[in-house]
Amino acid sequence: MSSPILKLVAQRVALGIVLLLAVSVLIFAGTQILPGDVAQAILGQSATPESLANLREQLGLNDPAYIRYFRWLGGVLTGDLGTAMSSGQDIATSIKGRLWNTLFLAFWAAIVAVPLAIILGLIAVRYRNGWVDKLISGLALASTSFPEFFIGYVLVYFFAVKWQIFPGISTVYDGMPFGERMQAIALPATALTLVVLAHMMRMTRAAILNVMQSAYVETAELKGLSAFNVIRRHAFPNAIAPIINVVMLNLAYLIVGVVVVEVIFVYPGMGQYLVDHVTKRDVPVVQAVGLIFAAVYISLNIIADIGAIVANPRLRHPK
Amino acid sequence: MADSKAKPGLLLDIRNLRIEATVFPPGEPPKNIVLVHDVSLTLEKGKVLGLIGESGAGKSTIGLSSMGYGRGGVRITGGEVILNGRDILKGGKDGFRKLRGREVCYVAQSAAAAFNPAHRLMDQVVEATLLHGTATRAEAEKRAVALFKKLSLPNPETIGERFPHQVSGGQLQRVMTAMALCSEPDLIVFDEPTTALDVTTQIDVLAAIKDAIRDTHVAALYITHDLAVVAQVSDEIMVLRHGRLVEWGGTRQIIKEPRQEYTNALVSVHEIEHAEQKPGTTPFLSVKNVTAAYGRSRIKVLKNVSVDIYPGQTLAVVGESGSGKSTLARAITGLLPPEEGTVTFDGRPLANRLADRPKEDLRQLQMIYQMADVAMNPRQTVGTIIGRPLEFYFGIRGRERDKRVAELLDKIEMGKGFSDRYPAELSGGQKQRVCIARSLAAKPKLIICDEVTSALDPLVANGILKLLLELQKEENVAYLFITHDLATVKSIADSIAVMYRGEVVRYGPKSKVLAPPFDAYTDLLLSSVPEMEIGWLEKAIKGRRMASAGN
Q1: Coil, helix or strand for B11?
Q2: Tell me: the pLDDT tens digits for B408-418?
Q3: What is the pLDDT of residues B29-46, one digit of tens each?
Q4: With contacts defined as CB-CB under 8 Å, which chain A residues touch B128?
């Protein structure tokens, strides 16, 4: 690999880091604007002016905001996300298991959704404007149009209540056997797949159709390649950049946007954790989860950018 | 013609071919149009038939029918296409797939677009051979390298490892020819293979294609709109117009004794008499020592360029692509502010940047572009398009404006009825005329014409050139005429600037620039212009070799 690619990639990564820092400032500032502070929240009803002042002194809340910000940032960078106010537990420890659960669910949803979306997109292009294309597009759009909670409850109704194939509540615990764990996440993973499928499939279809107008696709047809090989060998490699982009966007959604699905299936992931602590007004947890979500989002988008750069032969093989 | 099945040497026999397409005109129900009206042709093994005509003549459509292919919803609705003794139209989709890339191969106009940017050249060159299983990968690659050598490509052993963007346009065109030859087909359809190339590159590619055809004994349909080019490579020529056969005969007969009036018009198309005007005493626009570059690049696209333009005269700027012709226009108009040097207009310097120029300066310099259809707003009528400069520069509105628009339409030899039409309803030549009228509406002193005839058919281009000359006489407007086509230069220029790699290598009145002794580059340029003469190619190549050996 040569210098232009390295340079572009380094630029993207640097930009991502700057962006993440900016987001951390926003998150911190946002929680500062809220009325009340940690000391008030901890002491609650029993607060007296003296005890408040003492606790503020103890927690360093009297320092200027930027010092507190850097203290917080320093903690985050060394793996210390602070202590949850509601439970007094270390946030980093409780998030670890949750994050792993969320990633586990997102991973299996993605393993199904991404190849399925791309293959359906390829098939839709192959039979474009025919009934197969319309059927695929129609079903995919319908599944996206339904809200997640609706899909979730429909799945629960049929698979958990009526046919009793999968559990309706996705409880997982440490040391759970893999098979049982997979069974537990079957329904939330299906719901997530249905939600993200259409977007990726439509984008794959559009990106490839765009390339199908090119002269080199005609060249391939005039070599005698079959329609499917023309799409697979000649159109798809050139449509990959927009496809990577939309795939990454949806992967980010699988991790960050699962709140509703996790709540429906009572799945112990990040989303549930966030919702629980928002209702308890537990600011340090909300900050930590917000920052992790932002980091996931930004890193996946950087990967998409880098993927698009690497997919471009002009950048990969300069003159 | 005798019955084909009796003739053993016959490769392709197209009988009464009829090709139709459905068009969807805006605001009207879809309708069927016939693109090719019952055309018949025969081609013997190892022979080359040139198909010639303007755009819309159906040449490419007929050529592609030999592979059973219709571009963009075009349908073969009648006739027979008999290839190697069988009617391929009866073979269905599988039949087409088996013959494409094996019996018949295709060389496209723009190889740069026809190669897949994502794959290495070698993979693409051998793809058809491997697909049809006529050779193993090793054999096919060996064959490809031999073809690269035959087509005199540089580094034939390793060029296949490159990606299309790493190879120049002329080389790509040769690689594409190698790709077509690699599966050892019986017939190759060459669809304007040299049209997109520079004139100096065209001659090399043409010679390479001709040698390859001769040595491999492949038959070819050679499609082009340039009669001089097709005369170099074909045994027979078929002239087509509006999807109908005009004339079909041996190459010598077609170019020397055309029997049809239309063929005659094609043969004699480039002859416009234009007496050169002597340069006046004071130029109204002079470009002095202009140097320019794009972005912060250190590569100068223009190097110390100086030219003068006199009132009512034409300065032609010639050179191959990348020589800086269009950049010169951009520097003069202020679109690309020069780094050094000045542009003076009527004795005062023009602001470098377009944004710093007063409206009056903008009015005096107008432009016409190569692609007339993208230079107009497709949602505005011709009347609005031509009327816009009248409103913008002179504040003429309402009935007065409509009157002026009608006058301008009259000047460009188009009737008043065109005023309400949209650009999509016009032909290529008409669109370019509208662009001319639009620039004239500003009453400029100078019109910069950037390759204005390059995208047009020869006869239409000829009409545009005649119109420009007439308008010059009437309006006393000067032209800066950018072109790569020396024939155009001869017909329109008063003085000529030859550009090469950002520099003006030869500059002066037309008669001097086009008279020997020539510098090496001008000589190369002049000797590369195809002439309507059998054997010109060999002569030109031979002359060039001697010249380059002499350097």
Answers
A1: strand
A2: 998 888 877 88
A3: 888 888 899 999 999 988
A4: 223-224
Q: Is B12 helix (H, G, I), strand (E, B) or coil?
A: strand
The pLDDT tens digits for A85-120 are 777 788 888 888 889 999 999 999 999 999 999 999
CA distance A90 to B21: 72
Of A216, A226, A317, the CB nearest to B116: A216
The model's pTM: 0.80
Residues of A in contact with B105 (CB under 8 A): 222-223
Give a yes or no: residue A9 inside a domain: no
Which are the contacts of A152, defined by CB distance < 8 A and separation ≥ 6?
A187, A188, A191, A260, A261, A264, A265
CATH number at residue A183: 1.10.3720.10
* Residues A216, B165: C-beta atoms closer than 8 Å: no
Q: Which two tokens stand for residue B231?
A: 């005369």
Mutate to test the interface with B, among A126, A213, A223, A244 (most CBs of B within 10 A): A223
Q: What are phi and psi of B42, to 5 degrees?
A: -130, 150
Name every chain A residue with its beta carbon within 8 A of the beta carbon of B110.
Answer: 215
Sort out which chain A residues have CB atoms less than 8 A from B99's CB and list them. 224
CATH 3.40.50.300 for domain B4-267, yes or no, is: yes
Q: Is any Cβ of chain A less than 8 angstroms from the Cβ of B121? A: no
Residue among B485, B462, B522 at smallest CA distance from B198: B485
pLDDT at B420: 87
Partner residue opposite B108 with nearest CB, options A215, A313, A319: A215
Delimiting residues of CATH 3.40.50.300 domain(s) in chain B = 4-267, 285-515
B67–A contact, CB cutoff 8 A = yes
Phi, psi of B89 (to 5 degrees): -70, -20
CATH superfamily, region B285-515 = P-loop containing nucleotide triphosphate hydrolases (3.40.50.300)
Look at residue A1 and tell me whether its pLDDT is greater than 60: no
CB contact under 8 A, A218 and B114: yes
Domain total of chain A: 1
* Contacts A238 to B, Cβ<8 Å: 116-118
- Is residue A206 one of the residues assigned to a domain? yes
For residue A3, the distance in angstroms to the closest alpha carbon of chain B comes to: 17
Give residue A222's pLDDT band: very low, low, confident or very high (50, 70, 90): very high
Give the list of residues 6+ apart from residue B357 with CB closer than 8 angstroms, or none: B334, B350, B351
A154-163 pLDDT per residue, tens: 999 999 889 8
3-state secondary structure B288-305: EEEEECCCCCCCCCEEEE
HEC string of chain A equals CCHHHHHHHHHHHHHHHHHHHHHHHHHHHHHHHCCCCHHHHHHHHHCCHHHHHHHHHHHCCCCCHHHHHHHHHHHHHCCCCCECCCCCCEHHHHHHHHHHHHHHHHHHHHHHHHHHHHHHHHHHHHCCCCHHHHHHHHHHHHHHHCCHHHHHHHHHHHHHHHCCCCCCCCCCCCCCCHHHHHHHHHHHHHHHHHHHHHHHHHHHHHHHHHHHCCHHHHHHHHCCCCHHHHHHHHHHHHHHHHHHHHHHHHHHHHHHCCHHHHHHCCCCCHHHHHHHHHHCCCHHHHHHHHHHHHHHHHHHHHHHHHHHHHCCHHHHCCC
Domain that holds residue A240: 91-281
Chain B positions touching A233 (Cβ under 8 A) are 119
DSSP labels for B484-506? Answer: S-HHHHHHH-SEEEEEETTEEEE
For position B137, what pLDDT does the model report?
93
- Domain-embedded: residue A262: yes
Helix (H, G, I), strand (E, B) or coil at B456: coil
Mutate to test the interface with A, among B127, B177, B179 (most CBs of A within 10 A): B127
Q: Is residue A211 part of a domain?
A: yes
